[in-house]
Amino acid sequence: MKRQALLVVLFCGGLWGLAEAALGGWMYAADLRLAAPVVLALIAFAILAVGRIYLPVPGSSTAIAALAMLFKLLNEPFFGCHLLAILLLGAGFDVAYTLLRGRRKPLIGAAGTYLGFALFAVIITYVVRYEHWTRVGLPKVLGYIGGLGTLAAACNAAVVPLANRIARRLAAGSFEPARVRLWATRALTAATAALWAFAFIQRFWPHAAAA
């Protein structure tokens, strides 16, 4: 059970991190700065909703977010605000899913998104005091939560129930008999290993080759 839990967390964290590094990196480079937080939040909550079916433990979503941070850090230059946003989005989902006990999936999607966006806006402005945010202050905080946060929350109110439903059907029907379950576990293990091997090679191979 511990091995399966670790596998779920590593795979979901790697998949989310890959989306952040590849798609997120492209969107920010293409100056799609308004669309990026919304699109990435939808991907994140879809992955978290699936992960919570296979590992229904409070804290697991935050652990997945922490691994997504690590994956992004291994594949991109350090952007502290992006990493903080990932962690707090995972924490927001975690709190909403735990308090609502997995029921009312649309509410989990909306509340978790709002919480993640609100935590990020408040912390980056009033705790970290990042100049890009403090220069505008409260209007930027409220605009971020009420604008992008509302759009992402509305979308995630639909994304979370859909992803949750698909994951439940897969979990109920795709891993029996035992032989199928074994091959599914092997495939997931291979995919997880490939994701993290890619991340570490991207990070360390150029330096090793240069040396």
Average pLDDT works out at: 88
**How many separate domains make up the residues?**
1
Extract low-pLDDT stretches: none
Q: Compute the number of strand runs.
A: 0
Overall spatial form: globular
Radius of gyration computed on alpha carbons: 18 Å
Give the ordered list of helices and strands.
HHHHHHHH
Biggest sheet overview: none
Count of discrete alpha- or pi-helical segments spanning 4 or more residues: 8
Tag the structure with descriptive keywords:
211 residues; mainly alpha
Please give a structural write-up.
The protein has 211 residues and is mainly alpha-helical. The protein has helices at residues 2-29, 35-54, 60-75, 80-99, 105-127, 131-134, 138-173, 178-210. It starts with a helix and ends with a helix. Helix 3 runs parallel beside helix 8 and helix 5 (105-127) packs antiparallel against helix 7 (138-173). Helix content is 85%, strand content 0%.
